[in-house]
Specification:
This protein has 385 residues and is an alpha/beta fold. Helix content is 32%, strand content 19%.
Length: 385
């Protein structure tokens, strides 16, 4: 297992909680929606819990996950849906999940990359509870009540890169990211490959903030890129508003991530990538209620993309400046990467230092792409050591 990247705990709120056992002065904000005390068939439980590392209204990662939890509430009116915001990636997460279980939860969604270890701890302590973690990879033997899941994030990012490559006038694209986890590396690489597919001169300049949601660092990173002549900016941050607003104020184009934030950039919005978690969350809950979680595709490291199913990570709406020609280019690329022999990383793909990552014609599988630890040719900037 790779290093667990911790997120800021500075957003913790103090208020009354709906979950038993979560009432200290450093507790995250927790609420319950929907449902009654009826037991869910196949689980013996009456609730499903969701923990989020940040606020539910961040125009990004946590907002998308929260909206997915509300889709679960609508799909299963007999289940109480418990949600907890601002849950750090440490023993606080364990404590909050334990509180949800005490309140009847038999299914827990731990939605942050760094929630993996707490989620595994809770799963081990409660074999009758299904604990499923979003975005990380579990190694070794996976318990019968545990799994991870995620979408193939780099596919819509590749398509957004095409929009960026067509829009830039300076051939300088900017990427603000938090940590060098596999998802960020894959996204940065896919963005550059997408841009380069329509504009060979395009280069992607990267800045990392070492934080998932720090508006000050985000503004500093965005302004640094803009001062270098970057005229299209995207990001891999949990809260996305700051980077988008900064780009819009400076007259630059922006590409969104995690959620549709086009209202924040009425002039500069091109497109983006966003989560549509409801259908996948609902399928996981139904599988569990039916008593079929153990041995299912979710009792593993589940990944889904355009070639294998319905990717929960989808392209965002277009902005007003995106031409019909660019839309056609993106449609063509989407069809190509959805084909059996397609991939945003179909070779030849070279690294920054000229090494062959994927040979000409090679179509890497999801595991090979998630194992990339270097930037591709055209990315400007180095990975933190």
């Amino acid at each position: 297992m790779g290093k667990r990247w911790r997120r800021s705990a500075g957003l913790l709120a103090v208020m009354g909680l709906a979950v038993a056992g979560c009432s200290s002065n450093s507790t995250p904000t927790t609420t319950a929606t929907g449902g009654d005390s009826a037991k869910a068939p196949g689980t013996g439980g009456k609730a499903v819990g969701f923990i989020f590392v940040g606020p539910k209204d961040d125009y990004g990662y946590n907002q998308a996950a929260f909206e997915g939890s509300q889709d679960v509430a609508k799909a299963f009116p007999s289940l109480k849906v418990l949600t907890a915001e601002n849950v750090p990636e440490d023993d606080n997460a364990t404590r909050v999940m334990e509180g949800m279980i005490a309140n009847g939860a038999k299914i827990i969604f731990a939605t942050s990359y760094g929630h993996l270890d707490p989620a595994k701890k809770v799963a081990a302590a409660h074999p009758d509870v299904v604990v499923i973690q979003q975005g990380n990879i579990a190694t070794g033997t996976i318990p019968p009540n545990f799994g991870t899941y995620f979408g193939t994030v780099y596919e819509p990012v590749y398509l957004a890169g095409i929009a960026a490559g067509k829009a830039t006038k300076t051939n300088k694209l900017g990427y603000v990211y938090a940590f060098p986890i596999s998802q960020s590396i894959d996204n940065i690489n896919a963005f550059e490959l997408g841009a380069k597919s329509v504009n060979p001169a395009a280069k992607t300049y990267v800045v990392n903030t070492s934080n998932w949601c720090d508006p000050g660092k985000q503004a500093e990173a965005a302004n640094s890129l803009l001062s270098q002549g970057v005229d299209v900016i995207t990001q891999h941050q949990d809260c996305t508003a700051t980077v988008i607003k900064t780009a819009e104020a400076k007259g630059a184009f922006t590409v969104g991530y995690h959620a549709d934030a086009s209202t924040l950039a009425p002039k500069g919005w091109l497109t983006g990538s966003q989560w549509r978690w409801g259908p996948l969350y609902t399928e996981i809950v139904q599988t569990t209620i039916d008593g079929k979680f153990t041995g299912s595709k979710f009792n593993a490291n589940y990944r889904v993309g355009l070639k294998t199913g319905s990717n929960p990570f989808v392209q965002s709406p277009y902005g007003p400046s995106v031409s019909a020609e660019t839309k056609a280019d993106i449609d063509k690329a989407r069809a190509a990467i959805s084909a059996k022999d397609g991939s945003p990383f179909k070779g030849p793909v070279m690294s920054q230092d000229g090494k062959v990552l994927f040979a000409d014609g090679m179509v890497p599988d999801y595991a090979a792409i998630e194992d990339l630890k270097v930037f591709v040719d055209g990315v400007v900037g180095k990975l933190p050591s």
